[in-house]
């Protein structure tokens, strides 16, 4: 497949001493985690999507969610004490994160944003998140998400 790209995400992971594996796959437009989990041969539940959302004031927040689950925006707003939270339009998400939608990593974002992680992600032995480029995931211990990003732990998953 070629060589994994050097991205802001992988540079940050190396700088923080995070042990991670690199996984390239053929990106499919609108394929999402179903495609990446199939291509990598891992459970979709262990593939974590990085969602850029905004609250009612337009402030961004990054949400890490299992690939096979959706985010209850009502529950998220309640747990963050916000009136409402919704997914950003792709061009807004790109501006906030510095990444292209489909290649958004929670690591090495353009601007520092609060990060929320679904509690059950932290129970997994290994997770796969976007490495900062379409068709590129990094595999790591979810404890590293906590160490590097200091996320707010939330319970907002609903069946996908």
Textual characterization of the structure:
The chain is α/β, with parallel strands linked by helices. It has a single domain, classed as YbaK/aminoacyl-tRNA synthetase-associated domain (YbaK protein, Alpha-Beta Complex). The protein is 25% helix and 30% strand. The protein is built from five helices and ten strands. The strands form two sheets. Strands 1, 2, 3, 5, 6, 7, 8 and 9 form an eight-stranded mixed sheet that branches. A two-stranded antiparallel ribbon has the order 4-10. A hairpin with a 2-residue loop joins strand 7 and strand 8. The radius of gyration is 14 Å and the shape is globular. The protein starts with 7 loop residues before the first helix and ends with a strand. The model has no long low-confidence stretch (mean pLDDT 96).
Q: What is the compact description of this entry?
A:
The protein is α/β, with parallel strands linked by helices. The chain is built from five helices and ten strands, in the order H-E-H-E-E-E-H-E-H-E-E-E-H-E-E. The chain has helices at residues 8-15, 32-40, 73-79, 90-97, 142-149, and strands at residues 21-24, 47-55, 60-66, 69-71, 85-87, 115-118, 127-133, 136-140, 152-154, 157-159.
Write the layout of secondary structure elements.
Blueprint: H1 8-15, E1 21-24, H2 32-40, E2 47-55, E3 60-66, E4 69-71, H3 73-79, E5 85-87, H4 90-97, E6 115-118, E7 127-133, E8 136-140, H5 142-149, E9 152-154, E10 157-159
Parallel strand pairs: 2-7, 3-6, 6-9
Antiparallel strand pairs: 1-8, 2-3, 2-5, 4-10, 7-8
